[in-house]
Amino acid sequence: MRFIPWAVALTLFLIYSFFTIRRHELLLTSGYDLGIFEQGVRGYAEGRGPIVELKGPGFNLLGDHFSPALAALAPFYWLWPSAKVLLLAQSALVAVAAVPITRWALRELGPVAAGVTGLGYGLSWGLASALGFDFHEITFAVPLIAFSVVALGERRWIAALAWAAPLVLVKEDLGITVAAVGAYILWRGDRRVGVAGILLGIGSSLLELLVLLPAMSPGGSFAYWDNLSGGSGGRNLLTLPLDLITPGEKVTTVLLLLAPTVLLAARSPLMIVALPTLGWRLLSNNPAYWGTSYHYSAVLMPIVFAAFVDVLVKARGWQGLLPRWIARAALPVSLTVTLALLPGFAFGQLFSTELWRTPARVEAARSVLATVPDGARVSASNRLVPQLTNRCEVIVFGWPQNWSTAEWIVVDEGQPMGWPLAPDRERQELATVRSSGYQVVRSDHGITLLRRAPGTVAPAATEAPPPAGPGAGAGAG
């Protein structure tokens, strides 16, 4: 039976790897975010640091979010310079987080509970939304949180803090999660270890937010304070409880987080570790943080399922914690809810024929992109960017840099994404491109490749507006 946790993790890794690599091959990944992170990892691998041209000239990714953990991927990228390295690493990290949850359930509740909780975590909508939207730095946090929270449930205080401590190198807000782990330890167990965790977590976040990020940010300050300000008037303490539950999308998200555990996870004190992430998301004025899209719920899923195991373990040994029929029904209902939610989120694409076949348009795009020489400076549509970032110097067509700084321009006219330029605006910009010394080299299935004519100097392009819409890259939070 000892093989069950690793069998679950291996199964999840294979599913994730196929899903994410296939999406990339079908041009469903994007410059914002996969291209951004690939440029950062490529910079580490080449010894230049995480300089990301997609965010701006000479932009240091450590000034956007403090994520030096990305450097751990540099040796793998050096061996195989491809965006697929990032996607495979993400698949492995998210999958291995199932091991501590499944192992705990196996030891305390048996193989059936282990399988249900492990697969419930692995197929959860929070992970589906993250894996269905490129790569993100928080992938490093998922296994660290899983091992830490399970250690909390098993009252292994030093191990819990040791697993949580590296979170301060993953993202600036996760220091508060470390502090929450410390607070739990202080409350339930070892005072010295708990205080150490609180000081480490709060101190690290303050250092990163107030010193390190401003020092490396082009703007000289943390770029996302406005997302937490509550608007121009700031926060009203009297309405703070109401802000946590309005609009109703916030309540829906919380209920969906708990639904696969039949809401039982809410009864575990381990959910304290989820409060920092839930808090800043629900109090933010950025609607992207309130819902179920993108990568924002990935770090919460291991906490929720560890809390589920915690409640079931305690119910077995403590008469009266749960009515017996609820305890017996919890696992089959959990499995049913997990499977019922699958089609509504990104993993539902696994059951679509579109993921399993390669359209002629995609083959045409690959052929057109192969025309661009290695090392060229290219302005590309958002969906085409990560197909080039391993071998070219790439910017997004339309924002934030002018396309006129690139020798090559490649745009998907057949299926415009609508970001950063609306389709009408993109067509206007392409008309300007064609009249500014760029000549069409190839065009196939709407994938149009242009090159600046020899001996011509293109005028500055009209300034594109900043991107509207949430989730537009690493800058979304």
UniProtKB/TrEMBL annotation:
It comes from the Bacteria. Pfam families: DUF2079. InterPro entries: STSV1_Orf64. The keyword Transcription regulation does not apply. Coiled coil: none annotated. The keyword Membrane applies. Residues 455-477 are annotated as: Disordered. The chain crosses the membrane at residues 85-106, 113-132, 138-153, 160-187, 193-213, 294-313, 325-347. This is DUF2079 domain-containing protein.
